[in-house]
Amino acid sequence: MERASEKEKEALEKYLIQFLNIEKLFPLLPGVVNTDSVAGLMGLETDELTKLRQLFADNAKQAAMELLKEEEVIEWIDQIPISPDSTVVALGDSATDDLQGWFEIFKYVLEITVPEADFTFVNAGISNNTTTDALRRMNRDVLSHNPDWVIVSLSAFDTIRLSYAPGRTLIPLSETWENLATIQDAIETVTENPPVWITPPPVIPELLEKMELFEFSIENRDLAAVREIMIGKKRNIVDPLGKKMGNPPEAWFYLSDGINPSLSGHVNTVKELLRSLATAKVKE
Questions:
Q1: Which CATH number goes with the domain that contains 230?
Q2: Rounded Cα–Cα distance for residues 219 and 87 (Å)
């Protein structure tokens, strides 16, 4: 097995590991359920991978515990309509796939608050997914779990403009609209509870431009257009105006890429999610 160089290890530890969930990306790959094999693919020792993943899990749990010190958060939790035996699936891209992301924090918030509950949480986020990618795996990753609740956090990567084709977004806005409508229709075949839509926050272009791993740009006007589509959905719209990362967005709430939220940014998302669930009407 070829070992990762020190520079590669640094990239893995500081950025890639939290999104590099090979088990979800290639679920049928032989040996993918074996941690030794996955570590080998990354050029790491098994204990290195395990410790890094545990660090992110610990970060998410600690963030949840800090949130639970806020009185308004406790009030929202008391009002959310998710029953203790619910199956909750999150369909998303990198922000959802993140090992210390909003869904992991949300999971710990509910588990800590209702320890006797029998929740089932399914993180169906895969990094860099567009709505088209997510639609393709909808049956396997979402519907097969017969979820009671589905939280959708997609479309940021629909709006990327490739360096060699900057004149268009990767997924046309009309196709994003159709994909989200089809995702909603599919969800409604398995649960009476409406989907919960988390809108994509703005990006910080100056940070994105400096990111060597990316050969694309994202324009805030394109993200605003996607948010307009989501605002038209029925109920449960989280952060409809895209202001949860500040207005204008603050770098503190983002990783170095200017796209993905930092731990603090994910905490903002969880607060807005809880607020939305606590104040929304369901099963009308």
A1: 3.40.50.1110
A2: 35
Is position 27 within any domain? Answer: no
Total number of domains in the chain: 1
This prediction has a pTM of 0.93
Q: Which of 92, 14, 98, 17 is closest to 63 using CA atoms?
A: 98
List the pLDDT tens digit at each of the 284 positions of the chain.
567 676 666 667 777 889 988 888 888 888 788 899 888 888 888 999 999 999 999 999 999 999 999 999 999 999 999 999 999 999 999 999 999 999 999 999 999 998 888 999 999 999 999 999 999 999 999 999 999 999 999 999 999 999 899 999 999 999 999 999 999 999 999 999 999 999 999 999 999 998 877 889 999 999 999 999 998 886 789 999 999 999 999 999 999 999 999 999 999 999 999 999 998 754 43
For the record, the structure tokens of 282 come out as 């369901």
Q: Phi first, then psi: what are they for 67, rounded to 5°? A: -60, -40
Segments forming the whole domain that contains residue 113: 61-279
Determine, yes or no, domain membership for 207.
Answer: yes
Q: Is 223 exposed, middle or buried (0-12, 13-18, 19+ CB in 10 A)?
A: buried
Report if residue 173 sits inside a domain.
yes
Q: Is residue 71 part of a domain?
A: yes
